[in-house]
User: Fold this.
Amino acid sequence: MSAPKHVIIIGASGYGRSILWMLREDSAYQKDWDIKGFLDNRADIEGLPDVPILGDPLSYKIEPGDIFINALGSPADRRTYTAPLREQDADFFILRKNLRLGERATIGLGCIFDDNVSISVDAQIGRFVTILGSSIIGHGVKIGEFCHIGNFVFCGGDAVIGNDVVIHPHATILPRVKIGDGAIIGAGSVVVANVPAGVTVFGNPAKRFEFK
Assistant:
């Protein structure tokens, strides 16, 4: 029997603590793995009495049995704070609470799937993607790396989502729509046409949006 893993959560603020709660509800908790602590370098963030902050994710040296989960919402932050750990060949946890995964669908290393996410057949989910509760990913959808998809999002069949994309809650991506790298989809938007890389869209139908 292999030794249990020691889970380290990157990010000790609100979402990190939500991830801690989800991990503790998992049936494998304290059987296959335990919780070692948080990694966080923000001076105003404190650990919990039973879950300390172990150090800075940019300088932490991996110890035997460590396995990591990235609880940072921003794709840019997720890239930044996983990079030094990936350079050390860190192992990353896949959290999949009540995930419904279709035939031939694939999911990448370090993904987080909140409660009741549904991924249909032949979908491909890249590394370090976060998909929050009750979102539906249609058949053949391709999602790149480090994306963040909010609650109650629907991605229609064969849509293509680039890397580092943020899709806010209750958005709908119509079938076969392509969304470029780094695009942002506003809450409640209905995306009926392709979205270029780095563009923010909002509304129904979704149109280019700029903060003034």
About this structure: The chain has two domains: 5-87, 94-203.
